[in-house]
Amino acid sequence: MHFALLIYESAETFAKRKNDDNDPYLGAWRAYFKALKEAGIYVAGDALEVPETGTTVRLKEGKRRVQDGPFADTKEQLAGLIVLEVPSVDAALGWAARCPAASAGAVEVRPLAPEAKWRVGG
Amino acid sequence: MNGSNHEDIHRAVERTARESYGRLVAYLSSHTHDLAGAEDALGEALVTALRTWPRDGVPQNPEGWLLTTARRSFIDRARHQRVALASEPALLFLGEDSKEEPSSMEFPDERLKLLFVCAHPAIDPAMHTPLMLQTVLGLDAARISHAFLVSPATMGQRLVRAKTKIRDGGIQFEVPEESELPKRLDAVLEAIYAAFGIGWDDIAGIDQRGRDLAEEAIWLARVLLQLMPGEAEVLGLLALMLYCESRRPARRAPDGRYVPLSEQDPRQWLTPLIEEAEGHLARASKQGRAGRFQLEAAIQSIHAERAHSGRTEWAAIVLFYQQLIRILPTLGTRTGYAAALAEEKGPSAGLAALDGIELASVSNYQPYWAVRAHLLQRLEKLAAALEAFDRAIGLAEDPAVRQFLLEKRG
Question: ipTM score of the complex?
Answer without folding.
Answer: 0.86
